[in-house]
TrEMBL record:
Pfam families assigned to the protein according to its UniProt record, in alphabetical order: SAICAR_synt
Any one GO biological process: 'de novo' IMP biosynthetic process
A cellular component term, taken from the record's GO annotations: cytoplasm
Keyword Transmembrane helix: no
Taxonomic lineage of the native organism: Bacteria, Candidatus Tayloriibacteriota
Entry similarity comment: Belongs to the SAICAR synthetase family.
Protein name (Swiss-Prot/TrEMBL): phosphoribosylaminoimidazolesuccinocarboxamide synthase
Catalyses which reaction(s): 5-amino-1-(5-phospho-D-ribosyl)imidazole-4-carboxylate + L-aspartate + ATP = (2S)-2-[5-amino-1-(5-phospho-beta-D-ribosyl)imidazole-4-carboxamido]succinate + ADP + phosphate + 2 H(+)
GO terms for MF: ATP binding; phosphoribosylaminoimidazolesuccinocarboxamide synthase activity
Organism: Candidatus Taylorbacteria bacterium RIFCSPLOWO2_01_FULL_45_15b
The keyword Zinc is assigned to this record: no
Domain of life of the source: Bacteria
Length: 335
């Protein structure tokens, strides 16, 4: 489990038994619903597998609302594909109250950052899909002209659009860095998972393109309901296509970056990643106590935090067509 700095180490829901505390999310048992759990998104910020001593205002709200948005969209996408999608999401907004103890109900602040989901058996890999050669995929390509076992031709440029989206899974580390693995190993163990996540990514990227946005890459997590472990019953779990799990950019900026050799303006937490690279956080080891202490002693500049909040809110509005406050009211029924 990642070490959380004391400045941002808090329990959003004190009255329930915590099942898991992640870098950004907390999961809680629901006393009268043992098959379900409450998942609460925080404003915490993580890069390079470190949790930073900083928060991004309204980030938990954006992650929750965008997750709801895409989970409403995905059934529309897969109706045109060869998949049946079942959702882990049970309730959001005020609808979560029916699963909560009485003393936690009618709390709008909780409605904005929490959802009720089914407990599932999870696949121990992150299902990364790349449509563009950027980030970690670009680094792998530069070393060996391959990404997670996919051999690519010479001459590709940073941020190039790939001919076809690539399934590039990685390990799912509780502590330390995720590590890219050969896509064939995961496909052999979990038949059909590659086609599922590639099809969802492709449909989502097509929708985003209609809004002038590129989804360069994203990561999904998947699992099954207990007793249903087979390739026809995968469920997409956790967050879906958020600024934390995806790399977004404006299409015009992306095209210009490819042509000039520069970098596109980020629409995710890349501003924070870049700051972390400049001071060397990417070279530190999250399993080394001294490195953890050093990272926790750093302070993210306030202007970067403010720009990141503005970025999260802007990408949300571009993709959904609504401001966050409007989406809360009209889609999530939060007053």
């Amino acid at each position: 489990m990642a070490v959380i700095p004391r400045e941002v180490d808090f329990e959003p829901v004190n009255a329930l038994v915590q099942i898991h505390r992640g870098k950004v999310r907390h999961s809680y048992a629901l006393p009268d619903h043992p098959e379900l759990m409450l998942v609460v998104a925080s404003n915490r910020l993580s890069i390079f597998d470190f949790v930073l001593p900083a928060q991004v205002s309204r980030k938990g709200e954006v992650l929750t609302a965008m997750n709801v948005f895409w989970r409403e969209k995905i059934p529309e996408f897969v109706a045109l594909l060869e998949h049946e999608i079942r959702d882990e999401l049970v309730a959001f907004g005020p609808a979560i109250d029916q699963y909560l103890p009485l003393y936690l109900r009618d709390k709008a602040d909780l409605h904005r950052i929490a959802v009720v989901v089914r407990k599932l058996e999870t696949i121990p890999f992150e299902m990364v899909v790349r449509g563009y050669l950027t980030g970690g995929g670009w680094k792998e390509y530069m070393k060996a002209r391959q990404v997670s076992g996919h051999h690519l031709p010479d001459g590709l440029k940073k941020h190039d659009k790939l001919v076809h989206p690539l399934f590039t899974p990685s390990t799912k580390a509780n502590v330390g860095h995720d590590v890219a693995v050969d896509f064939r190993d995961v496909m052999t163990r979990y038949p059909g998972i590659d086609k599922l996540v590639i099809d969802i990514y492709s449909a989502a990227n097509g929708y985003a393109a209609s809004r002038g946005i590129v989804i360069a890459d994203t990561k999904f997590e998947a699992g099954w309901r207990s007793g249903e472990k087979n390739s026809s019953s995968y469920l997409i779990i956790d967050e879906v296509l958020t600024p934390d799990s995806s790399r977004f950019g404006k299409a015009d900026d992306w095209k210009m970056a490819v042509e000039t050799g520069g970098d596109p303006s980020p629409f995710d937490k890349q501003l924070v990643r870049q700051w972390g690279i400049e001071i060397g956080i990417d070279k530190r080891d999250p399993e080394n106590e001294e490195d953890v202490r050093w990272v926790h002693a750093q302070r993210v500049p306030e202007d970067i935090l403010q720009k990141t909040t503005a970025t999260y809110l802007e990408i949300f509005e571009i993709l959904t067509g609504d401001s966050l406050d409007t989406f809360h009211e009209t889609h999530m029924r939060i007053r």
